[in-house]
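From the pipeline queue, job 12 of 40. The input is one protein chain; the requested action is below.

Action: predict structure.
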Amino acid sequence: MHKVGKTPNSGTKTDTAGWYRKIGAIIDALEDETLPERLVRALGHLAPFEIAAVFVYRGRSRPLPIYDNFASADARKGIAAYVENTYVLNPLYQAYQKGLESGVYRMRDLAPDAFFESEYHKAYRVLPSHGEEIGYLTENWPQGMQELLLMLALDGNALAEITLSRSRDGPGFSETEISRLSDVVPLVGALFRRYWAEFGDSRSKTPPPDRRVDDAFDDFGKSVLTDREREVARMILRGHSSESIGSNLGISLGTVKTHRKNVYAKLAISSQSELLSLFLNSLQGSGS
């Protein structure tokens, strides 16, 4: 994974005066529960966006939705579906579990090498989409978006995600915009930590942390697969190629192919899309 670094300004025009005005207003009202929304609106002066969402990740429990500006009822169903189960396949969530640091990231920088080529079964709230940066789309989630992620470290090893999205049909986020966002991550992080210290306990209690999806992911295939085969199956689900699996596990490409063949045979499937369908079926069976 690669954090997006700072680059020289290219002269892109942004409303820095508007940014400072909004930040000043936020500092004047730090105990306002709408702080995340106001932060997002302030960031729009540095890097205009179409849609945005804020989540907090807390260990291996489900992510906590904090704010979004999704307008349609279907898009809001996409948020609910993501929080319910598909987050476990998100490269961002996987990177967080490995110690993702504060900073600005492009989604494509976090994804495994074969994630964009992954094919997923058209069911269970996950749809294949070669136009998406991570190769699939949670059902009802807005399509065709380029995502820029601001990750903010919180106390207790929690991490906040502010995702700013633009249509892939329009101009992408410029290096200048990314540099400006990188510059303000320390300030945005400090303000969000103030919000989290004030409201985090009450937000976290509704609902309580739920690890069933993670546990189901870890236990997937346990009754029929060996430990190594389960490890390979999980990496396939995350979007790793056979070469990447071999490199990460320290085994040969031939051995990876043998494990993959055994996984498919034991689970009575023949494709990656069927593997995902089987995994998502197991989530429903676990009561998640």
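Job complete. Strands lie at 51-57, 64-68, 103-106, 126-128, 136-138, 145-153, 159-167.
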